[in-house]
Amino acid sequence: MSGGAGAQAVPSAPADPAADASQSSTEQGQTQLGESFETESDRRDRIRDQRRQAFEDTKFDVQIRSYTLDRDKYDDTDSYAWALGGSVGLKTGYFRDRFAFGLTGYTSQPLDAPDDKDGTLLLAPGQEGYAVLGEAYAQFRLADGINLDVGRKAFDTPFVNRNDNRMTPNTFEAIFVQGVAGAAATGEWRFGGGYFDEIKERNSEEFVPMSVDAGASVDRGVYAAGGNYRKGGLSIGAVDYYSDDIINIFYTEARYALPLAESRELRLGAQYVDQQATGDELLKGTDFTGRQFGLKAELVLGPALLTAAYTGTDDETSMQSPWSGYPGFTSVQVEDFNRAGEDALLLRAAYGFPKLPGLSAYVLWVNGSDPDSPTEYARDEYDFNLQWSPAAGALKGLMFRLRYAYIDQDDGSDLSDFRLMVYYDPPKL
């Protein structure tokens, strides 16, 4: 009986219908064991297909930035610069469905930068331009939803993050695993852990040890591990950062969103930070402990968002954030309001204009009480922000943002901070 189903073996490598029948006695539709599974030719074809797909999945990313910052400081000195730059990068698809590569170059060049007005962090010290390969990493897919990053890359966690509020972000030299597990119905877990060896600060070309960036004179990295659970309106998590002989930072946060009615929602949040010296106490040369807790309430009223927040810092030590922006609920445009003994209250109102898509604005006020230090004073910060980001049309990808802050300090001094940002993200290639 020829050609029947019983004559077939594994159908993954069938006989070639166009093959010369004089060179083989295998019937069309049959597969012999020696031709089963994956042949060397099949393997080469598969690798070529995967490589081709990885190149086809490669994404190129370009961003152009123009940034002006003008700050009149408490001591009546001025920092000013206008810079032009941005980034160019790529992320490949996965080769053999297992590993990919990423590269990003950053630059910031002066357009107007007087030598006597240094300090904006838009440029390198001395008002010099810079260019740096800030990202160069390999990413390995360990399992579905779990990746291992090795090399120089940007990361986003509460105390190790991009701090991307100037021309270019922080990036880090690290080996780090990140993943997502679960589903919306049962709850989603996000987790990560690894080791950060070096950091490139926002306005630098150099990668330096994490401990040196924190202010110590020794070479130490930072171990970090944490996770977050989210289900419905609930989000709760914690992360810990440990640097031997330098500092240990523990951070935890919980948020809950309660729907009230159509386009109405109440959001509640709480946070706690604990910082301590470790080992030989090389950061400050002495033992220290710092703690801060915070509470936040937000009310969504259609296109409006009203916010109130409070933070309280223990008397012993001011909080530190050497490798990121500070995540405190009352940390705003200029001040972090996390000095030792300082209590802070924030009120904020934001509005997105429904008839002008992409246009939004907010105003806020933060009052910080007298800290413990006799050389520091209570202060009030007032911020205004206007932003336009067209979501469609010829200007899609363009962002205009104007920010202004004014700080009034109890010793009679004040500070003003003006920023104008124009970012453009061309369509992805």
How do the strands and helices of this protein lay out in sequence?
Blueprint: H1 40-56, E1 59-72, E2 78-91, E3 99-112, E4 130-143, E5 146-153, E6 171-183, E7 187-200, E8 207-209, H2 210-214, E9 222-231, E10 234-243, E11 247-261, E12 264-276, E13 289-301, E14 304-313, E15 343-352, E16 359-368, E17 379-388, E18 398-409, E19 414-424
Antiparallel strand pairs: 1-2, 1-19, 2-3, 3-4, 4-5, 5-6, 6-7, 7-8, 7-9, 9-10, 10-11, 11-12, 12-13, 13-14, 14-15, 15-16, 16-17, 17-18, 18-19
Summarize the structure.
With 429 residues, the chain is mainly beta. It has helices at residues 40-56, 210-214; strands spanning 59-72, 78-91, 99-112, 130-143, 146-153, 171-183, 187-200, 207-209, 222-231, 234-243, 247-261, 264-276, 289-301, 304-313, 343-352, 359-368, 379-388, 398-409, 414-424.
